[in-house]
Specification:
This protein is of the alpha+beta class and about 1450 residues long. The chain has 38 helices and 59 strands. It has a five-stranded mixed β-sheet with strand order 42-43-44-45-49, covered by helices on one side. Strands 1-57-56-55 form a four-stranded antiparallel β-sheet, with no helix packed on it. The protein has a four-stranded antiparallel β-sheet with strand order 2-3-4-5, with no helix packed on it. A hairpin with an 8-residue loop joins strand 24 (about 290-295) and strand 25 (about 305). Helix 17 runs antiparallel to helix 18 (about 1010-1020), helix 18 (about 1010-1020) packs antiparallel against helix 19 and helix 24 packs antiparallel against helix 25. The longest helix has 30 residues, at about 1320-1345. The radius of gyration is 54 Å and the shape is elongated.
């Protein structure tokens, strides 16, 4: 493991992303890794990492219970919650209960197995460590910012939300909300429970203790809760009462010589921490990185104390995110804080002073280098826009680091110390900036005015070269600063005058070496320590060595074949002078080469030498080389770092691996050897860490073998002649640490660095830096696709697209033969081009020389095309054949082939006119057929239009049911009276109607002129809007009769739904429907009056003002007449179509069926109102007979349907005085009917009114129980039972409407003799006999069929059997018991019953029709009621009693009636 290490910066804006356990182990979430740091009062040390999350760590918590303190839990934006063993650095289990990023997690201090987590959707999940179970709750639909479990009650959890709400939930009750704590009005950043149970600690003053009344001081469930919010307040809450007890406003602390302006909203994260054992002290963060200790019992305004006031520079410089505390075994209490300033600080809780500071890194470590002058002074270039300078040799503070950020504002990608001048450090950035810092002063850096266009890769100090070296003796600096950047240019800067223009050394190289061709882009340079020669690496893998100062080219090393990433000359400290000439180089090949250039440098050749063999070849890495450093302590020891994630130490002279370090996660980017300790090396990488490690302590000596390398070696063994170009000598490592890296590319490291730079901020947590303090862009890596430069063959397996098929595969394949054959081709082609007689057997474009047809004349090219066509036909690639013919000018042949193969396309069609109109027309027709097969009908029709085949295009669209498009085409291109248009509309309408799209079908019918069909199809939906629309369409279109019928249907539906206003509006649109409007007017008045009388309970959808109930003594017909005259202009005087006679004649045609018990009351009301309408019209026509008959029918509608109470109430509404001869007092109308039917109707109405008065009189004399009991017992026939129900049902209405005091009288106030009509008594007796005989016959048939074992008839029900049997038994009992001859007796009874039935029916036929048509109430029933009344009151005269007794003796035949009348007849 590493010795010292700078970890990645802790994540920002997380409520709990760090925690410390009881043993002093700190866990910090940084990017997607948790770093484990061993802390003490004097020092700290990174001891490991927990690796596995796929996204940013959002929460971390240790288990604080004895025996489990090594177990911890973390949450991440990847939605997972992971349990870890911090001792073994191993994953225990993973839960994926969340579907969205987890924002908070906490291990319960009260339950060793409970972990609670919350996500940004508001889901809270309980995880049980020992069982692996999870339970989810959804207390609030808000974004969770933080949560914390109570240390005293395991089931209580406090949850803080983004909108300022805090909720206390009980996880034992499915997340039930206990309290909602309202007070904060912005994000809740942190929550902390008091370490002490109960709520009495804060109330030391007696006047405050009153606030806790009602809460037991020792209540274990109650506890204080502290909350910190973005609204700049800390609040203390009582969990028992769910209310706030204290609010602490953050202090505005003076800092950096200026006061904080309260009006300016500063960036703030307000973390609160309640240390164990300190129930009255609370720690919180403040505005600018200060830590505040609150004394909750202190009086006065200033309840706070600042940390770190004993000396300057102890506090954080940016806002603090997390605070955690620990009691160590030496009884010291430490507080650990993490901040936006990328520092972790440790505080002594006793003195409130800072014990130590651990710097952290917020980006890739692109560069690290030790100062050649200041011993142990290490500079780091980091991707968080800052330079760190670390004094690694200090004894007091082992992390003595200074940070430089001014003037940088971009990722630091290159560093170089001045060889002689102490503290002078040059830097390069990813935006092309070059500058020089003096690290011992506070001055901002000097920035060169010459910027590179791309990322600066390398910086090097070296002797000046022309033009800067001219006049060096005149005070010019002895060193120039050289920078190499991504655009391939090396600039020479004058360090004494960085504002001057830098020079491009390529000009000097061209001039000195007389080079005319283009120079390869440069990617690295290294000056030999003595300044005599410089090595420059290029993008094509070539290394050029130049002699200073003229930069004469000495040699070119052509060993690498990929971009050069790093060059290093051996230092000159070694006693062996021959080592001083060793040059090590690393490229995007994985092999490191070392060249010995002694002979060339000591004896410069006249012309440049090309070197192709290395002095040593160091193989072992499996990915590109990113950095290297020679050991200053050993002879020819070299350390290299690579994209394979390891650092490798080599003994160059032996070409042997010495040690391999695998501590980084991801690519390693920079390395340097300790200048003081031979065994120590420092490396920095993509994992945001700097690590110090010892060569002697490493377990491995070689880099791990990647899978790609193994596969490649096997391939090379199988095929030793394989081209070197295809050797993939790099790939991802196969060892465990490399699995985290993905598949590193084998492209140019310089290019990839540039892309890492661009993609580094992608996972930046919510940070935005626009303050004057050090920039702090939070950087993480991203898996970015690599765009390689020229000659940079990157391995893009995941992103590689399928190559398009070659048009000339045969000739292309000839260029992939062995190298010897390819070289011979060059000789053959040269012979063909430059000699009159080509070599024997060499015919370009044919046979073995087919590919040469591309490089000679046209005839050879045509021969090559013919051969290629044959090959395409055999392979089935006819599209390629088409294009070859096209290219050679055979357009008609190309189109013919494409047509035959069904492979025509838009491109071929577009060029078809070049072959003539006939060819084009044929091609279009063929393409149309092809498109139809592909179901591209619209495109096919459009192509038919191009050759003016309009009707064919319309037929094509219609045949495939594209009616909309076909109609649009016809209307756009043909005359309006085109017959095909109506056909299309009709066809489309039929299809739409069949599919249920009625409104669309109607539009088609309207467009085709079929208005009747349009209205009919709209009406098919049969709802009110459809019927209204259909009626309007019919009316507008002139279909008057249809419009009227549809409007009437709609109005009836609306009336049935009691939407009276809507119904009238529908009818008012049709002028000839006045009589139906009058009918609905009557219906509305009737419904309103009945509802006012509380006989029916109906709620109207809409009603007219004139329908409101008026005075009760006015008859309903008077109300109707008044409304007609006012609203509709209909009266006795109106004429024309408004005359009463014409309207009555029109209304007679309307059907009015006789209602039954199954008809709903609303429908019965409409039937009754129809008769009322006819009655009023008859009144206006002076037809008294018709008026009386219609009034009778209006009342009879309700009676026949079984609504007897409504019928009785209607009688009262029609005749308030109880006299049917008085039709209207208001209009002085009395009825004097002359014809028999009208007289019978008047008599029937009058008797029913008297019948109601009779019962009212009876009930007014006695209690309901005494009076009703004999009646129900005295009447057993089904019909009479119905009447009994009517009387009982009508009782409540009568008693409510008629006051007993006014009704009670010793005399009857009506002529009761009308009720005792002998003619009607005789008719009713015959009807009763007929019913009894029918019932006996039915029961007998049923009994007989059961005796025979036959099935029941389909209409009979088992439920009817008891009634029928009882009546049969009753009747048979009166005739005597049946003997042995049962069957004979049955036959006789059946015959006798049939005879009786015939006799009774004859008698019934002799009864006058008026008696049967206009019945009276049951006469026998009325006789019994009158005789009962005579016993209770002298109101019934003697003659009336005698008449009643006579009728009873004569017509009372049923046993029950005989029994009831026995007391009156004896």
């Amino acid at each position: 493991m590493h010795e010292r290490s700078l970890p990645a910066s802790p994540n920002w804006y997380c409520s709990r992303c760090s925690d410390v356990n009881s043993r002093g182990l700190l866990g910090v979430g940084a990017r997607n890794i948790i770093y484990l740091i061993d802390v003490s009062a004097s020092s700290c040390r990174v001891v490991g990492e927990l690796v596995g999350h796929k996204d940013v760590v959002s929460g971390f918590s240790f288990c604080q219970h004895a025996g489990q303190s090594h177990i911890c839990v973390s949450s991440s934006n990847d939605g997972s919650v992971r349990f870890w063993d911090s001792d073994n650095k191993a994953l225990i289990k993973e839960h994926a209960a969340h579907q969205t990023p987890v924002t908070a997690v906490h291990w319960s201090p009260a339950d060793r197995n409970l972990v609670v987590s919350g996500d940004e959707k508001g889901i809270v999940v309980c995880h049980w460590h020992h069982t692996g179970d999870t339970a989810s709750f959804f207390p609030e639909p808000r974004t969770i910012f933080c949560l914390t479990c109570s240390p005293h009650t395991w089931s209580t959890v406090a949850v803080g939300y983004k909108d300022g709400m805090i909720v206390l939930i009980d996880v034992s009750k499915k997340g039930e909300v206990m309290h909602r704590l309202r007070g904060h009005d912005d994000e809740i950043h942190s929550l902390a429970w008091s370490p002490l149970a109960g709520e009495d600690t804060l109330y030391s003053r007696p006047e405050d203790s009153e606030a806790t009344s009602g809460v037991s001081a020792g209540d274990e469930k109650s506890c204080y809760l502290a909350s910190g919010s973005k609204d700049q307040t800390v609040r203390i809450w009582s969990s028992a009462r769910g209310k706030g007890v204290m609010t602490l406003k953050l202090p505005y602390v003076k800092k950096r010589g200026s006061a904080v302006d309260p009006g300016v909203k500063e960036r703030l994260w307000l973390h609160v921490h309640w240390p164990k054992g300190r129930p009255t002290q609370l720690v919180s963060s403040c505005f600018s990185g200060e830590l505040v200790m609150w004394d909750l019992t202190r009086t006065g305004k200033q309840k706070w104390t600042l940390f770190g006031t004993s000396s300057e520079g102890q506090n954080h410089s940016r806002i603090i995110f997390n605070v955690s505390s620990v009691h160590l075994q030496d009884d010291r209490e430490l507080l650990i804080s993490t901040s936006m300033d990328r520092e972790i600080k440790c505080w002594d809780m006793a003195s409130l002073d800072c014990c130590w500071t651990l710097p952290t890194l917020g980006g890739f470590v692109y560069a690290l280098t030790f100062s050649p002058v200041g011993a142990g002074c290490l500079a780091l270039g980091v991707g968080d826009n800052m330079i760190r300078v670390w004094n690694t040799l200090t004894t007091q503070n082992q992390y003595d680091t200074r940070t430089f950020w001014q003037g940088i504002k971009s990722k630091v990608t290159a560093l170089a110390w001045h060889p002689k001048k102490e503290g002078s450090l040059s830097f390069g950035t990813d935006d092309g900036k070059v500058g020089v810092y003096d690290v011992f002063s506070n001055k901002p850096p000097q920035i060169s005015s010459s910027y590179h266009r791309k990322t600066v890769y390398t910086l090097a100090w070296g002797p000046p070269v022309p033009p800067m070296s001219f006049g060096a003796a005149g005070g010019k600096p002895s060193y120039s600063l050289y920078s190499c950047a991504g655009e391939g240019v090396i600039l020479q800067h004058d360090p004494s005058k960085l504002s001057g223009e830098a020079s491009d050394i390529d000009r000097l190289i061209r001039d000195t070496n007389d080079i005319k061709h283009k120079l390869s882009p440069h990617t690295d340079l290294s000056w030999k320590p003595d300044g005599k020669v410089v090595a420059i690496g290029n993008e094509d893998g070539c290394i050029d060595v130049y002699q200073a100062p003229s930069l004469k080219l000495l040699c070119s090393i052509q060993q690498h074949h990929k971009i050069i990433n790093t060059l290093r000359w051996h230092h000159e400290h070694s006693s062996l002078s021959e080592l001083h000439y060793l040059l090590a180089s690393g490229s995007s090949n994985a092999t490191v080469y070392v060249h010995d250039l002694r002979s060339i440098i000591e004896n410069p050749p006249e012309s440049p030498v090309v070197l192709t063999e290395p002095f040593r070849s160091l193989s072992g890495h499996t990915a590109k080389i990113t950095g290297m450093a020679w050991s200053p302590h050993h002879d020819a020891w070299l350390v290299t770092v690579s994209y394979d994630g390891t650092a490798q130490v080599w003994d160059v002279l032996q070409a042997a691996p010495v040690s391999n370090y695998r501590g980084h996660i991801g690519y390693v980017l920079s390395v340097d050897w300790s200048p003081v300790d031979p065994d120590v090396i420092w490396t920095g990488g993509k994992d945001f860490t700097l690590q110090e490690w010892r060569v002697s302590k490493q377990e491995f000596t070689k880099p791990p073998k990647g899978k790609k390398m193994v596969d490649l070696k096997e391939k090379m063994k199988a095929n030793p002649k394989q081209k070197r170009k295809n050797k993939k000598a790099s790939g991802p490592g196969g060892a465990a640490p490399l699995e985290m890296n993905g598949k590193p590319s084998v492209g140019g490291q310089k290019v990839e660095m540039e892309q890492e730079l661009s993609g580094e901020d992608d996972e930046d947590e919510v940070s935005s830096t626009n303050s004057p303090v050090p920039p702090a862009t939070f950087e993480t890596q991203r898996k970015s696709s690599t765009v390689s430069k020229s000659k940079d063959k990157a391995d893009l397996n995941l992103l590689k697209k399928k190559k398009p098929r070659s048009m000339m595969p045969i000739s292309t394949s000839m260029d992939h033969r062995p190298k010897e054959d390819l070289l011979q081709d060059c000789i053959s082609l040269a012979s063909v081009k430059h000699s009159n007689a080509p070599p024997a057997g060499c015919v370009p474009g044919q046979g073995e020389h087919i590919h040469l047809g591309l490089f000679t004349d046209r005839q050879a090219l045509y021969r090559m095309f013919e051969a290629e066509e044959e090959g395409h036909v055999e392979a089935g690639h006819f599209d390629s054949v088409v294009y070859l013919r096209l290219w050679s000018g055979d357009l008609e042949g190309a189109l013919q082939l494409a047509t035959e193969r069904g492979e025509l396309n838009d491109h071929l069609l577009s060029i078809a006119p070049m072959a003539g109109f006939e060819v084009w027309s044929r091609t279009v027709e063929a393409f149309v057929k092809q498109l139809c097969l592909q179901e591209l009908y619209l495109k096919a029709a459009s192509h038919l239009l191009s050759i003016n085949k309009l009707y064919e295009a319309v037929d094509l669209l219609r045949s495939h049911k594209l009616y909309r498009e076909a109609i649009a085409l016809v209307k756009a291109r043909l005359p309006a009276d085109e017959p095909v248009l109506k056909e299309l509309y009709a066809c489309w309408a039929a299809v739409l109607e069949r599919d249920g799209h009625f409104s669309a079908a109607a539009k088609c019918y309207l467009a085709a002129g079929a208005s009747f069909d349009a209205a009919k199809v709209i009406a098919r939906k049969n709802d009110v809007p459809s019927l209204t629309t259909a009626a309007s369409v019919a009316r507008i279109s002139g279909e008057v009769a249809l419009g009227q019928s549809l409007a009437l249907r709609c109005a009836k539906d609306l009336a049935a739904a009691l939407d009276w206003v809507g119904a009238q509006e529908v009818l008012s649109s049709q002028e000839s429907l006045l009589v139906h409007r009058l009918h609905l007017c009557v219906a509305e008045l009737l419904a309103a009056t009945l509802a006012d009388s509380q006989v029916v309970s109906q709620s109207c959808v809409s009603a007219h003002l004139w329908a409101s109930p008026g005075e009760r003594h006015i008859s309903i017909q008077d109300k109707v007449r008044d409304v007609w005259e006012r609203q509709f202009g209909v009266s006795q005087k109106s004429g024309g179509h408004c005359s009463a006679g014409a309207l009555l004649q029109e209304l007679k045609s309307v059907e009015s069926p006789s209602p039954t018990a199954s008809v709903p009351l609303r429908q019965v009301q409409l039937y009754s109102s129809l008769h009322l309408t006819r009655a009023v019209l008859s009144w206006l026509s002076d037809d008294d007979g018709q008026l009386m008959k219609e009034l009778w029918k209006a009342v009879a509608c309700f009676r026949d349907a079984g609504h007897l109470c409504v019928s009785a109430e209607l009688c009262r509404l029609l005749f308030p005085d109880g006299d049917v001869s008085v039709c209207s007092r208001k209009h002085s109308k009395t009825l004097n009917p002359t014809d028999e039917e009208a007289k019978a109707a008047a008599s029937s109405l009058q008797t029913f009114i008297h019948y109601q008065h009779l019962y009212e009189h009876w009930w007014s004399l006695s209690t309901p129980i005494q009076s009703r009991a004999p009646l129900s017992a005295a009447d057993s026939s089904p019909t009479d039972k119905v009447k009994g129900k009517m009387v009982n049902g009508g009782a409540s209405e009568s008693e409510e409407s008629v006051c007993p005091a006014t009704r009670r009288s010793d005399k009857l106030d009506f002529d009761a003799s009308l009720l005792l009509s002998e003619h009607h008594a005789a008719c009713q007796a015959v009807q009763r006999s007929v019913r009894e005989i029918q019932e006996r016959l039915a029961a007998m048939v049923l009994q007989h069929s059961r005796a025979q074992g036959g099935p029941l008839n389909s209409g009979e029900k088992e439920a009817d059997a008891p009634t029928q049997t009882s009546s049969t038994a009753e009747s048979s009992g009166s005739q005597g018991s049946a003997g042995a001859g049962q069957r004979t007796e049955d036959q006789e009874t059946l015959l006798s019953l049939s005879a009786k039935m015939s006799e009774q029916q004859k008698q019934l036929a002799d009864v006058p029709d008026t008696i049967k048509m206009y019945p009276h109430p049951d006469v026998i029933e009325c006789c019994l009621v009158l005789l009962h009344l005579s016993e209770a009151s002298p109101s019934v005269c003697k003659s009336l009693q005698d008449e009643a007794r006579g009728l009873l003796r004569k017509y009372a035949t049923s046993p029950s009636v005989l029994k009831a009348s026995q007391r009156f007849l004896t």
